Amino acid sequence: MKNILFIVLIYITFSSYCYASNGSLAAKGDLFFFGQGVEKNISKASSFYKKAKEAGEAINPFQDGVILLIEDVSFINNAFLPRNPIKALGLFKLAEIKGIKGARWGISSSYDHIANDLLKKSDYQGAFKVYEQSYLEGSANQTAIYTLAKLYHKGQGTVSNIPKAVELYLESDWVSSKSQLKSIIKTVSKNLKNKDQILSITILESFLMAVQKHPNKHNYQDLHDGVSIMLANILFSHKGQINEVLLIQSLKNVKTSQLKGTSVKLIQYMKNNNNSLK
Asked: Are 76 and 46 within 8 A, CB to CB?
């Protein structure tokens, strides 16, 4: 049975490739874009879409958008065609309305290209608006959400908003997110000794709330445990108002062996001194 399924799969893949090879150039471009029967290669896909357009083939808005997004310098029928992510975005949105496969990728990538072009010009305000629009539309990819977090973190193009940056760093779950969060927590721990206690507590609590809902919370376990103990110390030193229900839940989820015993004692102490937590 497995051999029959394998043969059928090979036949379907080979047939689709032959169809594209013997059929339109645009169809062959689709095979390369979506990795159907060949290794996925967006540059090759764009090249075939461009050849199709030069040959006078009818191409759809998605394929036209890929040409404008990927090609740095193109010549269609001897006409100069520079890369144009803004125009590409419009084509991809049209493709989405028509239900064409790949449109969401195109929208997300177009926003990325537009924002990156603005960042290269140090236009942080413009880049922030693009990333924010992409995020609000649900089109932002992992790197876009991470970059939006950095803009909030550094106050570039917008007013600095560390609690929001914390949420977005966690949402992006990008390879550098954890190091950025460590930096924020380190700064917050220093500010606790100064006059920024209310903001510091807000940042730490927003981190714990976001981690509790995170699908990969285990990746941030050490930070979660350290922040939980830090907030408990603030509570017991009477240096600030703490969300005790959140803190209890966080202390229960402490996994670090060196802190586990401490968290159990802190939970018991809190319950003994607050009847509403029992």
From this structure: no
How is residue 106 written in tokens? 């195109």
Query: Is the backbone of residue 171 left (phi > 0), alpha (psi -120 to 50) or beta?
Result: alpha
Element (H, E) at 224: helix 221-236
DSSP-assigned states of every residue in 24-54 = -HHHHHHHHHHTSSS---HHHHHHHHHHHHH
DSSP assignment of 188-205 equals HHHHTTTT-HHHHHHHHH
Q: What is the pTM of this model?
A: 0.80
* Eight-class DSSP state of 265: H
CA angle 116, 119, 125 (to 5 degrees): 115
| Cα torsion angle, 166, 167, 170, 175, sign | negative
At which residue do the structure tokens 């537009």 appear?
Answer: 114
For 16-40, the pLDDT digits (tens) are 444 444 468 999 999 999 999 999 9
Burial (CB count <10 Å: 0-12, 13-18, 19+), residue 25: buried
Quote the CA–CA distance of 63 and 232 in Å, as a whole number.
56
Radius of gyration of the chain (CA): 26
Strand partners, 73: 82
Q: Are 45 and 33 in contact (CB under 8 A)?
A: yes
